[in-house]
Design brief:
With about 400 residues, this protein is α/β, with parallel strands linked by helices. It has helices at about 5-10, 30-45, 55-75, 85-100, 120-130, 150-155, 175-185, 205-210, 230-235, 260-275, 285-310, 340-350, 360-365, 385-400, and strands at about 20, 80-85, 105-110, 130-135, 160-165, 190-195, 210-215, 225-230, 315-320, 330-335, 350, 355, 375-380. Helices cover about 40% and strands about 15% of the residues. Strand 3 (about 105-110), helix 5 and strand 4 form a beta-alpha-beta unit. The radius of gyration is 21 Å and the shape is globular. The structure holds pyridoxal-5'-phosphate.
Length: about 400
């Protein structure tokens, strides 16, 4: 069955407002079952966790269900799913806990393709403990992150390799599995930023070789809350700062204060929603997630090809290069028009697309484009349509004319 985008769009009530959303990489619209679940949780008697009375048992059930849902979404052990307010906050927490075990002479490897949330925390904790930072470079001509360079970057003092599963600027998917294998051979851990990738792809953290995999639910139809997934034994080796009376077991040890039960109910609903994107697939939730995300990726990739080809055919438009097979995220500039001006012209046509560096700070620095405003980013999500791509192309043509 072809991907039924009309059916999918019907699950996103906010589409009724009529905007064209090419802003999903900054946060997607929320699926109706998610808002229903959040509201239902807030209307119900849900108390802070206790096994003494029913409302207190409910919060425990909500947390457990959300851990299972995230484990099904990315492939992992529910007992290794840690929740936090954002991917950035979780990455800082993991970086601090890991760096407690590092010292001068130890090394971390980061990449210039990454969102700054998977760069700066490592750079800052490394500076604090006297560890050395080594940089993986992307190829500005192709947008690829050559995996071969890691043979030189990784050595016996490497403690951690931080790497994105997909660029939020241009969609590039580095060969995480090969790079992780090189890291593991040297005894290093691998921290994968899955914030962009999880929205678009079937994910298997084990196949990627991710020791840690971080993802944010607001990028995949859910609420503003994030999760970091690792094996329980990996978490057990870390001792973060924590309150004396709070649980010391894993994963709770890493979750500070009371979790947002309503948003966690939304996380479970979001994963259920994603699992149902392709209604023809059957099986357990993990199998349905993998098949549905595969179908969504095939559909979105088709739109991204239309968009790239259409933009490339417009005189004066510069599309930032990216290797084939990436996430459906396209950055471009129109002649001498500052990206912000282009984005405002698109907004006047009801089209939402961001301009700037989108926190892909090192990428835009290296491209020499940051100081002049970065780029306009059109990110496609599975609720976009070919008609919307055509509208975007018409609006860009008008700016270029
Ligand atoms: C690739 C990538 N990593 C990390 C982040 C940061 O996520 P959060 O807002 O949950 O901290 C983003 C947000 O845009 C992102 O796109």
């Amino acid at each position: 069955m072809p991907f039924d985008v009309a059916r999918v769009r019907a699950s996103y009530p906010a589409l009724a407002e009529g905007y064209v959303h090419f802003d999903g990489a900054a946060g997607t619209l929320v699926a109706a079952p998610v808002t229903d679940a959040v509201a239902a949780t807030m209307r119900a008697a849900v108390s802070n966790h206790t096994d003494v009375f029913e409302p207190g048992r409910r919060s425990g059930e909500i947390v457990a269900a959300a851990r299972s849902a995230v484990a099904d979404l990315v492939g992992g052990d529910p007992a290794g799913v840690v929740f936090g307010p954002s991917a950035t906050a979780l990455t800082y927490a993991v970086a601090r806990a890991l760096a407690d075990r590092w010292g001068p002479g130890d090394e971390v490897v980061v990449s210039r393709l990454d969102h700054d949330a998977n760069v700066r925390p490592w750079v800052q904790v490394a500076a604090r403990v006297g560890a050395t930072v080594r940089w993986a470079e992307f190829d500005p001509e192709t947008g690829a992150l050559p995996a071969g360079q890691y043979a030189d970057l990784i050595g016996e003092r490497t403690r951690l390799v931080a790497l994105t599963a997909a660029s939020n600027a241009i969609g590039t998917r580095p060969d995480v599995a090969a790079i992780a294998a090189a890291a593991h051979a040297a005894g290093a851990l691998v921290y994968v930023d899955g914030v962009h990738a999880t929205a678009h792809l079937p994910i298997d953290t084990a196949a990627l070789g991710a020791d840690f995999y971080v993802t944010s639910a607001y990028k995949w139809s859910g609420p503003h809350i994030a999760a970091c997934v690792a094996a329980p034994a990996t978490w057990s080796a870390l001792r973060p700062d924590k309150l004396m009376p709070s649980p010391d077991e894993v994963p709770d040890r890493f979750e500070w204060g009371t979790l947002s039960f309503e948003l966690l109910a939304g996380v479970t609903a979001a994963v259920e929603h994603l699992a149902g994107l392709d209604p023809d697939v059957t099986g357990d939730r993990r199998a349905r997630v993998l098949a549905s995300m595969g179908a969504a990726h095939a559909y979105s990739s088709g739109l991204a090809r239309l968009l790239r080809d259409g933009l490339a055919a417009i005189d004066g438009v510069r599309v930032l290069p990216a290797p084939a097979g990436g996430c459906p995220t396209v950055s471009f500039r129109v002649g001498d028009s500052p990206p912000d001006r282009t984005a405002r012209a698109l907004a006047a046509e009801g089209i939402c697309a961001y301009a700037g560096d989108n926190y892909a700070y090192e990428y835009f620095q290296r491209m020499g484009l940051r100081a002049s405003g970065g780029a306009v980013r059109a990110s496609i999500y599975h609720y976009n349509t070919a008609d919307e791509v055509a509208r975007l192309l018409d609006a860009v043509k008008a700016v270029a004319a």
